[in-house]
Design a protein that fits this description.
By secondary structure, the protein is an all-alpha fold. Helix content is about 65%, strand content about 0%. Helix 1 (about 5-20) packs across helix 2 (about 30-45), helix 1 crosses helix 4 and helix 7 (about 155-170) crosses helix 9. The radius of gyration is 17 Å and the shape is globular.
């Protein structure tokens, strides 16, 4: 295994310290810290040889997300997309600042910011690897809870959500998801099967 540079460990520690400030709890831990740890764990399972930039990007993907609440933007469809786009830039800039503190130079900072900012999806390998990891984490850990919070969604709406998630993923991620290495949410299996085969 290739040893990471010292700035990598410093950056991860800074990311985790930032996410450790999340006042929201999930399983007794700060919510975004747990999410970041799940992202790293999933990347190690899905792409154990992922480059340094992708490893940094997955750990910083939701960094300090709670500081930009959804209701800080208009509660409309347009407001939702503006919030999401604003978050991409906020996460990228925050990760970049912390990486600079950790001792990284411009080239690696820009590479990670591009991935965290979700730029060039399907074209930039770091961005795609981060997106794949986020989608796999969503399916394994969060899709069931998300479903429970949306009792008004009908089957068609669910098929649309699953298909949109699937479409963002690479073929490598599709293979991994269906290989038995991902814990698919049992109650949603019929819907997932229908969505990806339809």
């Amino acid at each position: 295994m290739i040893e990471k540079p010292e700035c990598f460990n410093r950056a991860i520690a800074l990311f985790d310290a930032a996410n450790g400030e999340d006042p929201n709890q999930d399983e007794g831990q700060p919510k975004e810290l747990l999410y970041a740890q799940r992202m790293t764990e999933m990347l190690h399972r899905f792409a154990p040889d992922a480059p340094e930039a992708a490893q940094l990007a997955v750990r910083a993907q939701h960094i300090k997300r709670w500081t930009v609440p959804r209701d800080s933007y208009p509660m409309t469809k347009e407001g939702y997309f503006a919030w999401r786009t604003g978050l991409y830039k906020f996460h990228a800039d925050t990760a970049g600042e912390l990486m600079r503190q950790a001792g990284y130079g411009d080239a690696m900072i820009e590479r990670v910011k591009k991935a965290v900012g979700k730029r060039a999806l399907k074209v930039n390998p770091d961005t795609q690897q981060m997106e794949d990891t986020a989608d796999l984490v969503f399916i394994e850990y969060y899709m069931l809870g998300f479903a429970a919070g949306k009792p008004d969604y009908n089957e068609e709406k669910w098929l649309e959500i699953i298909r949109k998630t699937w479409k963002k993923m690479s073929e490598t991620a599709h293979t991994f998801a269906l290989s038995g290495q991902l814990k698919l949410p049992e109650p949603l299996l019929p819907l997932i099967t229908k969505a990806i085969s339809g």
